[in-house]
Design a protein that fits this description.
The complex is a heterodimer of chains A (433) and B (169). With 433 residues, chain A is mostly helical. Chain A contains 21 helices and no strands. The two termini of chain A are 35 Å apart. The model of chain A has no long low-confidence stretch (mean pLDDT 92). The chains are: A mainly alpha (433), B mainly alpha (169). The interface between A and B is large, with 85 and 66 residues.
Chain lengths: 433, 169
């Protein structure tokens, strides 16, 4: 690659400006403008790509709506009932409250599409519950909340899968279905590790809930538990488009929390709208930057060149998947995941397809990988968030996270090398891949 | 006084952003109800919500989200000393000003050229719909001029806080 070519200079500028601390979205727009300038192209193209790209990506409207739905569901009364339900299910085991933390994350994952939102929603509450009377150490509780939140965007709905669907032209419906088994698998390996640790570290047991109470507790949680059914029902019955399904889920969440649980106030409603707006703005700026920069990458033909190169090496699909996983895991230690998903992953997709790797499978592998990146030091947003919520040093948190990181990477390997685990459900519902 | 006025303006900008999400949500509900319950598909709702999405992001990036709340990479700037940090902020802000500034004339030309088209359902002229991008570029130029001015007077760049960045992952 010519180091003085407009593309190299633009790429260098984006990397340099990001390292200097400029917001990544602005760095991408500025670098792309530099490219257009040096290549003698119309600099108005940046505006054109950004505006038309945003104006036509209807699917992205699902992002604010999913955030809104999770915000409506994230209220005291609903959380209490869900936790009581989880406790009735797994509290009686050794390490019961730790298991509750994971089961609660799995349930919340089916209502929310964001790991950070999950950690923010349940983090403080779980921390208080788990450290009360010194039952668990603060760093173990915080580590567990961080790693269990990773499940959030793997089980549908999922904001990262919406982004992948955008950059890879893959059906969001099939992607959502494909995330289901891997999400549950991650939950299962975490629960197994807890069961193993529970014996060695003698974790406490919660008082068993009698069988007679179980139906009542379940009944109270049912309206909240129905939300994923509404969402997926709308999606797969073809009643609504995927974006409309997100709106329907948000509307259902609003109705349930307002009428059944009576937990909606005007202030709370405004707060939910503003949270949704803020998150949408931040991620929207990254999408905007990526739209402009991906245009540059496309006119430079980078993805095709990479695909041709990889094909020339006669790389096997398995070797490529391994390579992609290692690259993404390494990048995840240092970069924010949305950037990886919007800039690096689209460069890899054409190669994956040229090698005969299923795009839905590849998308789920990439997203699981990037989610693991949220808990890998030194740069892991979930780690930062939990050190702040729990007030434990990053060092202690990382030590407790490590064993979980090990089993999750094991699960990632399984998902990577056994595509049927991922594709089984979508195929059952008509996916031809 | 200035600080108070700025805080008041920011809260009003937040009101607008929250209202845009509300309109988007409401438009979707209307769309589903009309099509599914009255068997009467309407097109203007999806156009309205997509306009809200575009405006929300660019309006918000201009007036709602503070620089330190945006998603950025700060491992390097956090480990640097004070003087290095100021120098880094200076180079970043100047580069952004030069590049955004250089693109402004061509951007203005593109946006005003779009007056030849109108949106499909609401028949709004596209130069109006896309004018938010000009607002965005000018607001960002103003913001970074201000950041630059503060750096030159010896102020430090804002420290990013990872937990404040509203990443949607």
């Amino acid at each position: 690659m010519n180091l003085a070519s407009p593309f190299s200079l633009a790429l260098g500028t984006i990397v340099a400006l990001s390292l200097l601390g400029l917001p990544v979205g602005h760095a991408m727009i500025a670098g792309s403008v530099l490219y257009l300038w040096l290549a003698g192209l119309d600099m108005g193209t940046a505006a054109e790509q950004l505006l038309n790209g945003m104006y036509t990506s209807y699917l992205l409207l699902a992002i604010p709506l999913f955030i809104l739905a999770a915000e409506f569901m994230n209220s005291g009364p609903i959380m209490d009932r869900l936790l009581r339900f989880c406790n009735a299910l797994v509290g009686r085991w050794r390490g019961g409250l730790a298991q509750v933390n994971v089961v609660q994350s799995i349930i919340f994952a089916s209502m929310s599409g964001s790991a950070l939102a999950d950690a923010a929603a349940s983090g403080r509450l779980m921390q208080t519950l788990m450290t009360k009377d010194g039952r668990y150490t603060a760093s173990f509780a915080a580590a567990l909340t961080a790693v269990s939140s990773v499940i959030g965007p793997i089980i549908p709905p999922s904001i990262p899968l919406v982004l992948y669907s955008l950059v890879s032209d893959t059906s969001i419906g099939y992607l959502f279905l494909a995330g289901m088994v891997p999400g549950l698998l991650i939950g299962a390996v975490q629960m197994s590790l807890i069961a193993f640790l529970a014996k060695r570290r003698n974790f406490p047991v919660e008082p068993a809930v009698s069988l007679r109470e179980l139906p009542g507790i379940t009944w109270q949680a049912v309206p909240a538990l129905m939300m994923p059914v509404i969402l997926l029902g709308c999606l797969y019955s073809g009643i609504t488009t995927p974006t409309e399904a997100a709106a329907a889920a948000a509307a259902y969440a609003l109705l349930v929390s307002a009428l059944l649980y009576r937990s909606v106030t005007w202030t709370g409603l405004y707060g939910s709208l503003l949270t949704s707006a803020r998150t949408t703005i931040s991620i929207g700026m990254l999408i905007a930057g990526a739209l402009v920069f991906n245009y540059v990458i496309t006119i430079e033909n980078i993805p095709k060149a990479l695909a041709a190169m990889m094909k020339a090496y006669e790389l096997s699909p398995l070797a490529f998947l391994l390579f992609a996983n290692l690259v993404l895991l390494a990048l995840g230690c240092f970069l924010e995941g949305t950037t990886i998903l919007l800039v690096i992953v689209p460069v890899l997709v054409p190669t994956a397809q040229a090698l005969g790797i299923d795009p839905v499978h590849f998308g789920v592998v990439a997203v699981v990988n990037i989610m693991i990146g949220l808990v890998t030091p030194p740069y892991g947003l979930l780690l930062f968030m939990m050190t702040k919520i729990a007030g434990v040093p990053l060092k202690d948190l990382v030590r407790e996270v490590m064993p979980f990181l090990g089993v999750m990477i094991g699960a990632l390997a399984l998902i990577t090398f056994v595509p049927d685990l991922v594709l089984f459900l979508p195929r059952l519902l008509g996916y031809k891949g | 006084m200035m600080r108070k006025a700025a805080a008041w303006l920011r809260r009003r900008a937040e009101n607008v952003a929250a209202a845009m999400v509300a309109v988007m949500f409401f438009a979707f509900v209307v769309q589903i109800v009309f099509r599914y319950f009255f068997n009467f598909p309407v097109g203007w709702t999806s156009e309205l919500s997509v306009v809200m999405w575009l405006w929300l992001v660019l309006w918000g990036a201009s007036f709602v989200v503070k620089e330190r709340e945006e998603i950025r990479f700060d491992l390097l700037s956090e480990s640097a000393g004070r003087r290095t940090r100021i120098a880094m902020g200076f180079v970043a802000a100047t580069s952004l000003l030069v590049l955004y500034g250089a693109s402004l004339p061509a951007t203005y030309k593109y946006v005003t050229f779009m007056k030849v088209e109108s949106s499909s359902y609401l028949k709004i002229r596209m130069d109006w719909l896309f004018s938010i991008y000009l607002v965005f570029v000018v607001a960002i130029l103003a913001r970074y001029l201000w950041i630059l001015w503060r750096l030159l007077r010896g102020g430090e760049p804002d420290q990013a806080e990872a937990t404040q960045a509203s990443s949607a992952l």
